[in-house]
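sry for the spam today, last one i promise. struct tokens for design, 497 residues
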């Protein structure tokens, strides 16, 4: 990553920052800031304010509404999708944000091999404000995807000019522009006065001074000293340090999807046997694991993709395999493993995944499963899980945004959870979902997928990990920053000083 050519912000020290300057901090480190670049999830908070989406998903309900585009529609044969842009838009570098610029920006993404689905065969300008997507087959997920990273269009002029450096010098059309950046250390975002409201609120602060503080103690000390106004994305141990402190409010994102999980390689024995997968799920005391790992901060077990606070929650997906060690032993016996079995696995070596691995090993031992698990850095663990290795389980996390993204990603044949690319009972239902139009009809297919997955156990959910938040009393809008789109939306934040 290259540092921005503008002066990188140093992070302010001392309480009572002058002017309308919002000081924020997190432990999350983005890989890069290009909306079409590789993602680890940490960059979404940046994207939410540096870019404006083509279609805006309501942060609480997920309902789609106008963003940079004021309307959209499918053709009669569902092989074309058309966006009508708002007039008189521009990017932060002055480039006109018209149909030609949007088509060029999204084509750049497609050429990068990121974000643009294979079903999109081409993107062209069909007029000054009309963008047309040519589809190779009907694809109902496109509006939802255009409300996420795909729809956060970047200036094609700036991306072309900067090349690889664009990842640290992004130019969008959002309410804030990046005016300083030290990768892994800090960033400075300044209100862009040229912003035309496009779903996302206009900037309330003159400037956001953003620091990445990886150490819990350092982050806690800065919040307590009054040097941080708003913090998110920190370890649960920090919650205990901040609880009850005067002038500080704690909250959490209970609407976004994020959970710890176990990915399963179902293409190889013994995990190709659904009885073994069900046995493992029955052997896990999810509530006890969450309590042990988080100290009681995280409390909600999961079997399905959405928490109870989400508009996409399906209560029928809950408790699919309740904790029942005896049932687990019986299923293993039926599968021919009455004398026990050994499973090799890897886990991410960060919190809470390595901790989950320790608890999981003890819980599975009680039903006769010897889990040989090694905690490794993310890149190494992922590499050592994929086919060709002996590791059949990856202890990590899952998450997502709209259901039209989540269901294909987690239940489809090409999903990251389906490392062996196994065709399952859910696979044709995922295909059906992607060609089903209308929210209510889509929800019916989702419920069918949930019911099938409850029996098939394509992966094992453990517990939800809602993101913890903390803010000082003079911060406004903090309660509104949580979003179903994932991570936080800092556009809501202001100061009452």
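last one done:
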């Amino acid at each position: 990553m290259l540092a921005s050519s503008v002066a990188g912000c140093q992070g302010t020290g001392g309480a009572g920052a002058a002017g309308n300057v919002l000081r924020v901090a997190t432990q999350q480190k983005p890989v890069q800031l290009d909306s079409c670049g590789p993602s680890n999830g940490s960059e979404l908070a940046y994207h939410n304010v540096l870019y404006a989406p083509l279609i805006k998903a309501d942060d609480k309900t997920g309902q789609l509404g106008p963003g940079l585009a004021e309307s959209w529609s499918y053709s009669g044969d569902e092989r074309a999708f058309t966006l009508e842009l708002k007039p008189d838009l521009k990017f932060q570098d002055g480039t006109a944000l018209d149909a030609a610029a949007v088509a060029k920006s999204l084509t750049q993404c497609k050429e990068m091999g990121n974000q643009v689905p294979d079903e999109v065969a081409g993107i062209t300008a069909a007029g000054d404000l009309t963008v047309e997507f040519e589809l190779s087959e009907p694809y109902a997920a496109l509006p939802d995807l255009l409300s996420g990273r795909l729809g956060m269009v970047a200036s094609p002029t700036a991306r072309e000019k900067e090349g690889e450096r664009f990842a640290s010098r992004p130019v969008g059309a959002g309410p804030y522009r990046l005016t300083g950046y030290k990768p892994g250390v800090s960033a400075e975002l300044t209100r862009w006065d040229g912003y035309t409201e496009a779903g996302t609120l206009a900037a309330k602060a003159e400037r956001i001074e953003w620091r990445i503080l990886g150490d819990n103690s350092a982050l806690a000390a800065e919040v307590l000293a009054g040097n941080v106004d708003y913090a998110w994305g920190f370890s649960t141990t920090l919650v205990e340090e901040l609880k009850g402190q005067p002038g500080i409010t704690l909250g959490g994102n209970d609407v976004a999807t994020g959970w710890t999980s176990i990915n399963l390689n179902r293409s190889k024995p013994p995990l190709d046997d659904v009885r073994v997968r069900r046995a493992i799920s029955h052997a896990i005391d999810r509530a006890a694991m969450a309590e042990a790992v988080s100290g009681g901060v995280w409390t909600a077990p999961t079997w399905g993709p959405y928490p109870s606070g989400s508009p996409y929650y399906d209560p029928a997906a809950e408790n699919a395999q309740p904790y029942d060690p005896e049932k687990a032993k019986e299923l293993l016996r039926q599968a021919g493993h009455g004398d026990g079995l050994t499973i090799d696995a890897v886990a991410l070596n960060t919190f809470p995944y390595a901790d989950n691995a320790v608890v999981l090993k003890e819980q599975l031992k009680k039903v006769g499963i010897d889990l040989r698990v090694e905690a490794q850095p993310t890149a190494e663990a992922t590499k050592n899980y994929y086919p060709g290795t002996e590791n059949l389980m990856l202890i990590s996390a899952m998450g997502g945004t709209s259901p039209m993204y989540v269901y294909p990603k987690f239940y489809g044949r090409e999903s990251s959870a389906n490392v062996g690319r196994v065709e399952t009972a859910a696979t044709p239902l995922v295909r059906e979902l992607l060609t089903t139009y209308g929210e209510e009809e889509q929800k019916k297919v989702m419920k069918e997928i949930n019911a099938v997955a409850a029996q098939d156990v394509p992966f094992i959910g453990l517990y939800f990990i809602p993101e913890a938040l903390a803010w000082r009393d003079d911060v406004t809008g903090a309660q509104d920053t949580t979003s179903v789109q994932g991570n936080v939306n800092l556009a809501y934040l202001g100061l009452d000083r």
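The chain is about 25% helix and 20% strand. ok im logging off now
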